[in-house]
Amino acid sequence: MGSRLNPADVGLFLRALVLARHAQRVRRAPVPDVVASIASRGGGGGRQPTQRVELATTRAVAWWRRWSGGIDTCLTRSLVLGGMLAGRGDVELNIGFRPGEEEPALDGHAWVTFNGCPVGCDGSLAQERYTRVLAVPFSRGPGEE
Predict the structure, then answer these.
(1) d(Cα 133, Cα 93) in Å, to the nearest integer?
(2) Looking at the DSSP assignment, which residues form a beta bridge with residue 119?
(3) How far is it, in rounded angstroms, from Cα 57 to Cα 20?
(4) 104 with 94: CB under 8 angstroms?
(5) Mean pLDDT score across all residues of the chain
(6) pTM to 2 decimals?
(7) What pLDDT is stored for residue 142 in this prediction?
(8) In 5-117, which residue ranges form alpha helices assigned H by DSSP?
(9) Of the residues 1, 101, 127, 140, which has the fewest C-beta atoms closer than 10 A?
């Protein structure tokens, strides 16, 4: 007897996959423009637990990289996760930097905050270790909710 796919998880994955495609625009467009574009398409996480939304996001971005040659970075994962959570509360994309291991290198990282709290497996560590230099809200404009 094989394992059954949970329809809610499949739906989350497919929605995240659409957003993963749009997150690839970060290669050629300013981050705030990509956030606005994704936020307008986002909100696919429904009322699912944040951990399930994060898992769907991670899988979708990895799948997109593997099968379409896209990029799978903390920035693309954060763009998709933020888009999936858009409309559920205050969701922000955060980008921070810290000195790299080898001076004068810089180490950058992106993470999502949801209602002021970091989301994701490395969100708390990022907030502690990196100096945030940019925060872009995932808002869908007037009448978003």
Answers:
(1) 11
(2) 112
(3) 8
(4) no
(5) 87
(6) 0.88
(7) 46
(8) 7-23, 31-41, 50-68, 74-85
(9) 1
Q: Which residue has the tokens 């007897």?
A: 1
pLDDT of residue 103: 66
Candidates 40, 49, 26, 48; CA nearest to 87 is 40
CB 50 within 8 A of CB 119: yes
Domain boundaries along the sequence of the chain: 7-137
Check residue 95 and give left, alpha or beta (phi > 0: left; psi -120 to 50: alpha): beta
Q: What is the DSSP string of 12-31?
A: HHHHHHHHHHHHGGGGTS-H
Where the chain has pLDDT below 50, the residues are: 1-2, 141-145
- Is-contact 56 49, C-beta < 8 A? no
Q: What is the DSSP letter of 96?
A: E
Q: Is 40 helix (H, G, I), strand (E, B) or coil?
A: helix
Starting from the edge strand earliest in sequence, which strands make up the sheet with 117-119, in order? Answer: 117-119, 106-114, 91-99, 131-137
